[in-house]
Specification:
alpha/beta, 9 strands, homodimer, 11 helices
C-alpha cells in the first residue's frame, strides 16, 4: 500500500485508555510515532500509561492534545462518542483524522456527521478484536494480531485518509482490513459478533444441572461460553443500538434450532446428517 | 489412589483405532503396559499403529487379543458396541475389565449388561475429550490433557476395577475423574456437550450474509463454531440416543434466547444487564 506520510511525523491521541485504547497504545509504540498521547477521565489510568511508557503524556483536559494531533483514535463506549465530539469540535486540528472502534455504525455515523466540522475527517472503523475483560490492565498488542478490521467509509472521507487508517490497522497487527457500507457492517456484526454473545449468555444461563459444571465440561462448552463473561454496560448499548439487525439474526437462528430440534424429535437421521454436513462444509471454508 | 496392580503386567487391547483409540494408544505407551494391542476392521489403521510404535500388534480377528487381555478399551461408534460385545462375549478373559468411551450411557448400559458374561466387568466411562476430526491421523495424547472423565458405575462393578479405570484415566492425562449415575450423566452431557453442538451447527447454518464471512469474524465466532465441523455419523447417533434429555435442554435454551430477544425488543436495559451479570458470574466460577 502506498502511503504519503511518515508515522514518525505524526502526533496520535488515544481517547479512553482502557482495553482497546491501551492495546492501541501498546501496538503503536513499536511504530514510533512522534508522540502518543492519551485522554481519559481516569488520572490513574493515564499515570499507569506513562509509567508503562506506552504513552508520552496523559491529559484529563482534551484541548491541548487534540489541537496538536494528526490522528485521534476514540476508544470510548458507544454512547460517549457523540458527546465527546460535540464538546471538542472546536479543538481538533484542521485536516486531522479521527477514527473510532465502535461496534455499531449507522446511528453513530449519522450522529457524528451532523456535528463534525468540515475540515476534520472522521474515518469510521471497527477493529474486530477485544477481550471479555475491561480496562488498561488487560490491554495488549496481542489482541490485534491476525484479527479483522472493518472500515465503513462515507462520502465525506478523503481517500488518502482512509488509506492512512488502513495502514495503521495493518501495522498494529490486523490481518485483513476490509471496507463495508455502514448498513452491511451492522448486519454483519449482528451475526458474527452480537449473535454469538446472545448465544453464549443464553447457554450459560440455561445451566440447571445443580452440580459443579466445571467437572463435567469439555473444550466445546468452555469455548462456546468464554464470551458469556461479558461487559454488561457495553454490550447492552451495542445490542439496543443494533436492535433491528440483531433481532432478525436471532430469529433466523431460532428457526434453525427449532428445525434441528424437530429432526431429533422425529429421529430424522437424514435431515440431521444434512444439517451437520452443511455446517461442516461451511465451517471448513471459513 | 492405592492400586493393587502394576500396569507393566497388563495386556491392554484397544478396539477401534481411530481418533479416540489412537489417542489412548499414544497416551498409554509412556506408561509401559506389558502389551498394547488393537483390533480394527481397517488393516491400514492397524499397520499405521504398528509403524508408529503405538501398538505392539494389530488384529483383524478379535479372538486372540481378547483372550489374553486384562483390560479392553472399546472406542467404537455407539451403535457398534453392543454387537461387538455380543459377537465376542465368549472371547473375553475371565476377570478382565472392559471399558468404553461412549457419550450416552443409559441405553448402552442396559444393552450391555443384558448380554455380558458374569465374570467380565464392564466399567462404563466417558472421556470428555475429542476433536472435530476423525481417524487415527488426528489422534494425539494431548487430546486428554487436563480434560474431564466421567465414570458411571453400576452394581455389577467391582470397586477395585473402578479404581483401575480411574487410575488409567488419570495417568493418560485426564485431570478430573468423577462418578455419576448413568441418568445424571446423560442429562449432564445433553447440556454440556450435545447442546453446544446443536448451537454451533445452527449458528453456522444461519449465515445468510452473502459475503466472505471469514473476513468479518472475530475470535468469538471462530470459537463458537469450531465444533460445527462435526462427525455427522457419530453425533446423529448420540443426539437420537439421548433424545429426551437433549430436547429438554434445547427447550430451556430456547426460552432463554426468547427472553433476551424480548429484552432487546423492549429495550429493557435492566433486564439485559441482569442476564449479562448472571452469565458473567457463572462463567467466572466455571
Amino acid at each position: 500500500m502506498d502511503i504519503d506520510f511518515n508515522i514518525k511525523d505524526l502526533n496520535i491521541t488515544i481517547v479512553g485508555l482502557g482495553l482497546m485504547g491501551g492495546s492501541f497504545a501498546k501496538a503503536l509504540k513499536p511504530l514510533k510515532p512522534k508522540n502518543v498521547w492519551a485522554i481519559d477521565i481516569d488520572g490513574d489510568a493515564l499515570g499507569e500509561g506513562v509509567k508503562l511508557s506506552i504513552i508520552d503524556r496523559g491529559y484529563l483536559n482534551p484541548k491541548q492534545p487534540l489541537q496538536d494531533s494528526d490522528i485521534v483514535i476514540i476508544c470510548l463506549y458507544p454512547t460517549l462518542v457523540k458527546p465527546f465530539i460535540e464538546a471538542n469540535k472546536d479543538n481538533f486540528k484542521k485536516g486531522s483524522i479521527i477514527t473510532d472502534v465502535t461496534g455499531v455504525k449507522i446511528g453513530m455515523m449519522n450522529d457524528i456527521n451532523s456535528v463534525i466540522p468540515k475540515d476534520i475527517d472522521f474515518v469510521f472503523g471497527h477493529p474486530m478484536a477485544g477481550r471479555e475483560k475491561k480496562g488498561l490492565e488487560y490491554s495488549s498488542a496481542q489482541v490485534f494480531q491476525g484479527a479483522n478490521y472493518i472500515i465503513t467509509p462515507n462520502q465525506r472521507n478523503k481517500i488518502e485518509n482512509i488509506e492512512t487508517i488502513k495502514w495503521i490497522a495493518k501495522n498494529v497487527g490486523f490481518k485483513k482490513v476490509i471496507e463495508l457500507s455502514p448498513q452491511k457492517h451492522d448486519e454483519v456484526i449482528a451475526f458474527t459478533s452480537q449473535l454469538p454473545h446472545v448465544l453464549a449468555v443464553a447457554l450459560v444461563n440455561s445451566d440447571d444441572l445443580g452440580i459443579d459444571t466445571g467437572s463435567v465440561v469439555g473444550d466445546s462448552y468452555r469455548e462456546l461460553t468464554r464470551i458469556a463473561q461479558i461487559n454488561s454496560e457495553l454490550w447492552t448499548e451495542l445490542f439496543i443500538e443494533n436492535k433491528v439487525n440483531l433481532i432478525q439474526k436471532i430469529e433466523i437462528l431460532q428457526e434453525n434450532i427449532e428445525k434441528i430440534k424437530n429432526s431429533i424429535l422425529e429421529e430424522d437421521v437424514e435431515s440431521l446428517k444434512e444439517e451437520f454436513e452443511e455446517s461442516s462444509s461451511r465451517r471448513k471454508n471459513l
